Amino acid sequence: MNIQFDETNLLADMVGRAHGVTRAEVERAQPKAQKALAGFRKLSDAGRYGFPQLPFQSKVVKAIVRFAAEARGSFDTVCVVGIGGSALGAWALDCGLRGPHPVQGAFTTGHPRLVILDNVDPDFTAAALASMDPHKTLVVVIAKSGGTAETVATFLIVREWLQEALGATAGRIVAVTTEGKGDLYALAQAEGYAVFGIPENVGGRFSVLTPVGLVPAALIGIDIAKLCRGAAKMTDDCWQPDLERNIALRAALYHWLVWTRKDKPIQVAFPYSNHLWGTAFWFRQLWAESLGKATNRKGERVNTGQTPIAALGATDQHSQVQLYIEGPNDKVFTFWAVKRFRATGLVPGTPTNLPAFDSLAGQSLAKLIDAERRATAAALTEYGRPNCTVTLDRVDEEHLGAFLQMMEFQTAFLGEMLNIDAFNQEGVELGKKLTFGLMGRAGYEPYRAQFAAYEKKRAAAK
Ligand code: PA5
User: Do domains 3-43+228-418 and 51-222 have the same CATH topology?
Assistant: First the structure.
């Protein structure tokens, strides 16, 4: 397993002192990074945050592998009903290891596909249901809280769709939720679904290596033991004080400096790989929800956060790079490079006597996408735009498991450096409660009243 972090283009020597970090600044920040490592280690060892332990839970992995092996052959579609942290991990794994949509190829009972119902757009839900055969669909409903409005509403539709077609749902529904708590757990018990638990100390966006990501992954044929093996290796590195080995801590240190000292409130995740496109969306949630906070741990108002953007190379060179090069210098770019693609994409060498064609004939798409990334990094650097690169040797189970774990550690370390709680998400609560109020849920009447007051204010402002 080989993942590297290259910070050279974040240095003042490359992009100038106004936008890049000096070696002296890096030196001065070292104790802060080491403090973040020690502080996070303490919290993790005390059991407050559970994601670092996940790759070592071999019993959970074995139970999921056994379950998937027993179910195999009875479905050609795995339908995940979940949202946010309960959906994006599965999407990242599916896209990363089985190929980007829509080019995954034919799905069969031997090669099932993944359909994720993570939105309550009625047209999307209807179209998805119309595309699935209830006799060949295994539904995985995922909600840590057990009561998320979007998940519950969609699940009730899917459950009825199964019941109408099959007469019963026995053996067709798996629930992933907090064991012993919440309405989904209660329903699963009452209706006899298989249940996999989510540890209390792992929040949605850090849960890809719990059953939240592992159950769908195993069901579509991903080797989850290898995924955890890669994540375990990365975890060992992430506990090391040596920044050469601990690339998550090194990356956190540089990102903290560039963000807070060089005023870069935007982070562009720039994978040059369609397989990593799903992971970019997973990362967006991780970065936004973990680091966007109103207060620090002392209770002081900080309203901090770095807005994550997902851009796909080379495609978005033709839609975003103009802004990135000439627009405001308020971004830091992280290229995600892949050294070895599965295919080469050899460009036929037949001459045409046309320079645009002949200059590329006989070369390969692998070489071209690599050149495009390096050229874009060089162009950004020339314009004083700080950028760095994470390189994965290839996108397989071990590397993806390690990469996801690296990103989670990097986020946790950065949270420590900012002295914020990277693991809560108070900010999304009000919208959820107002929705419950609007949908008439008992106990949420004050939120309905709050919404009515807001509407009144709007009417007066018009
Ligand atoms: O990161 C998080 O905690 C959130 O994005 C949740 O995953 C999301 O709100 C879904 O919650 P639940 O799993 O309870 O349905």
Answer: yes
Active site residues: 289, 318, 432
Tokens 């209807």 identify what position?
A: 126
CA-nearest residue, atom 12 of ligand 1: 143
Other beta carbons within 10 angstroms of residue 46's beta carbon come to 9
425 lines ligand 1 (CB under 6 A): yes
Answer whether 267's CB lies under 8 Å from 285's CB.
no
Distance 85 CA to ligand 1 centre (A): 5
Assigned fold of 3-43+228-418: Rossmann fold (3.40.50)
Q: How far is the CA of 83 from the centre of ligand 1 (A)?
A: 6
Task: Per-residue pLDDT tens, the chain, 462 aa: give them.
Answer: 999 999 999 999 999 999 999 999 999 999 999 999 999 999 999 999 999 999 999 999 999 999 999 999 999 999 999 999 999 999 999 999 999 877 788 899 999 999 999 999 999 999 999 999 999 999 999 999 999 999 999 999 999 999 999 998 889 999 999 999 999 999 999 999 999 999 999 999 999 999 999 999 999 999 999 999 999 999 999 999 999 999 999 999 999 999 999 999 999 999 999 999 999 999 999 999 999 999 999 999 999 999 999 999 999 999 999 999 999 999 999 999 999 999 999 999 998 999 999 999 999 999 999 999 999 999 999 999 999 999 999 999 999 999 999 999 999 999 999 999 999 888 888 888 999 999 999 999 999 999 999 999 999 999
Q: Is 31 exposed, middle or buried (0-12, 13-18, 19+ CB in 10 A)?
A: exposed
Domain 51-222 CATH class label? alpha beta
Give the separation between CA 406 and CA 269, rounded to whole angstroms: 14
User: Domain limits of the chain?
Assistant: 3-43+228-418, 51-222
